[in-house]
Design goal:
Structural class: alpha/beta
Number of helices: 11
Strand content: 25-35%
Helix content: 25-40%
Low-confidence stretches: none
Shape: globular
Number of strands: 16
Length: 366
C-alpha cells in the first residue's frame, strides 16, 4: 500500500504548477484517496476561487466517487474561517472525510492550528508534518508575507564570469543563453510581481512579462521611478499585467494623470536623502497584497536591496563570458573594508543550462 509520503508528494507536485498564480493566497493542492485509489485532485487557482480541498471534492463527485470515508492529502492546513470563500473545514466535515493528512500548518493567525483542532473535534483523524520541509518551502513567500508583514524579496541577476551585466557601451543582449532565459521567466511566474528601477526600463524597454513558459496570469510590474521619467510609450505599460509605478511627491501631476488614464497604478513614497527607503517600499507592497517580488535590476536597485538586509533569495545566472574592468558591474558599492564583513550566502540550488550556471542562494548570517 502506498504511504502518506507518496500521496503528499503528488499533492506538492500539483501545487508547484500554480506557483505565483494564487497570490495573495498560498499555493495549495489536495488529493483524495479511497480504498487505495485516487478519486479526486484539486488545486487552488487564485483569490476568490475554490480552494484545493473543494476542487478535490468536486473532482471526485464529477467522476461519480463519494468522498465519504476517504483520506484527504493537503499541502497546507485547511482554513476554518470565512474569507473570499467559505471554510474548507466545513466541506471536509460535511462530506464525511475520515482522515486528513497535512503537509504543514498555516501561519496565518486566523487559521494557525484552529483548522486542525476543529477537524479533530469532529472525530476526523488528522496527521500533520508529512513532507513538511517541502510544504514549507513551497509557500515560503506566503509565510514571510504573513509572519513578517512584507513581501518575500528575490533578487535576480544575469552576469558574466567577471560579474558584469553589460559592456561599457550598455550592450547586454544576450549575456545568458536561451535555456537560462526560459528559467528566468519561470522565476517571474512564480514571483507574481517583477520589480525594476527606471534606468532598466529606459535602457532595455523591457516588457517584464512571462513569455517562455505557460502561465494563466501575468506578473504585476513594479517600477521605481522617483522623478517619473518613464515614457508614456514604454512597452511594459501596454502589455498584459498590472503596472505599478512608485514615485514621489515631486512627480509631474499632468504626467500622473496621463498614466492613470492608461490604467497605470501610481503610488507615492517619501524621499529620504534623494532615495526611497526599502522598508517604506516593502510596507507599501504589503498593503497592495504583493506576496513576492522578483527584483531584476538594475545594479543600483539590486545594491540598495542588498544593503537594506531585506533579501530572502538571490538568483544568479552566470554565462562563461568576460567583459573586463570597463564593463558595467552587477552590484554597486557596498563600502566593505574587510572580507569578514562581506555579504554571505549559501548555495541552496545549483543548475546547469548548457554552458551557463545558475545559483540559487540564501543569505547566511553576516
Amino acid at each position: 500500500m502506498k504511504n502518506d509520503n507518496f500521496y503528499m508528494n503528488l499533492a506538492l507536485e500539483l501545487a508547484k504548477r500554480e506557483k505565483g498564480i494564487t497570490h495573495p493566497n498560498p499555493t495549495v493542492a489536495a488529493v483524495l484517496v479511497k480504498n487505495g485509489k485516487i478519486i479526486g485532485k484539486g488545486v487552488h487557482k487564485g483569490a476568490g476561487k475554490p480552494h484545493a480541498e473543494i476542487e478535490a471534492i468536486n473532482d471526485a463527485q464529477k467522476k461519480g466517487a463519494s468522498p465519504k470515508g476517504a483520506t484527504m492529502y493537503v499541502t497546507l492546513e485547511p482554513c476554518c474561517h470565512y474569507g473570499r470563500t467559505p471554510p474548507c473545514t466545513n466541506a471536509i466535515i460535511e462530506h464525511n472525510i475520515k482522515r486528513v493528512v497535512i503537509g504543514t500548518k498555516d501561519p496565518n493567525p486566523t487559521v494557525a492550528g484552529k483548522g486542525i483542532k476543529l477537524l479533530q473535534e469532529k472525530g476526523i483523524t488528522v496527521k500533520t508534518g508529512v513532507l513538511e520541509e517541502y510544504a514549507k518551502q513551497l509557500n515560503e513567500d506566503f509565510f514571510t508575507y504573513i509572519t513578517q508583514k512584507r513581501p518575500f524579496v528575490h533578487l535576480k541577476i544575469a552576469q558574466t564570469l567577471d560579474g558584469k551585466i553589460a559592456s561599457y557601451t550598455g550592450s547586454s543582449k544576450w549575456i545568458t543563453n536561451e535555456k537560462s532565459r526560459k528559467y528566468a521567466h519561470k522565476l517571474r511566474k512564480e514571483a507574481g510581481a517583477v520589480l525594476v528601477g527606471i534606468n532598466t526600463v529606459l535602457k532595455d524597454n523591457s516588457k517584464l512579462t512571462v513569455r517562455h513558459v505557460e502561465t494563466d496570469k501575468q506578473p504585476k510590474k513594479i517600477i521605481i521611478d522617483k522623478e517619473l521619467k518613464i515614457p508614456l510609450q514604454a512597452d511594459l505599460l501596454s502589455t498584459e499585467g498590472e503596472s505599478i509605478i512608485i514615485t514621489s511627491e515631486y512627480a509631474d501631476k499632468e504626467k500622473i494623470k496621463k498614466l492613470k488614464d492608461k490604467g497605470i497604478k501610481i503610488e507615492k513614497l517619501p524621499v529620504k536623502e534623494g532615495l526611497f527607503e526599502i522598508e517604506d517600499l516593502l510596507n507599501l507592497l504589503f498593503e497592495l497584497e504583493i506576496v513576492q517580488i522578483l527584483v531584476e535590476g538594475g545594479a543600483k536597485t539590486i545594491t540598495k536591496f542588498l544593503k537594506s538586509g531585506f533579501v530572502d533569495r538571490f538568483s544568479i545566472f552566470i554565462a562563461p563570458k568576460i567583459l573586463g574592468e570597463e564593463g558595467l558591474s552587477s552590484i554597486g558599492k557596498l563600502d566593505i573594508e574587510d572580507i569578514k564583513d562581506s555579504y554571505k550566502f549559501y548555495v541552496e540550488k545549483l543548475k546547469r543550462f548548457d554552458d551557463d550556471i545558475y545559483l540559487s542562494l540564501k543569505p547566511s548570517k553576516r
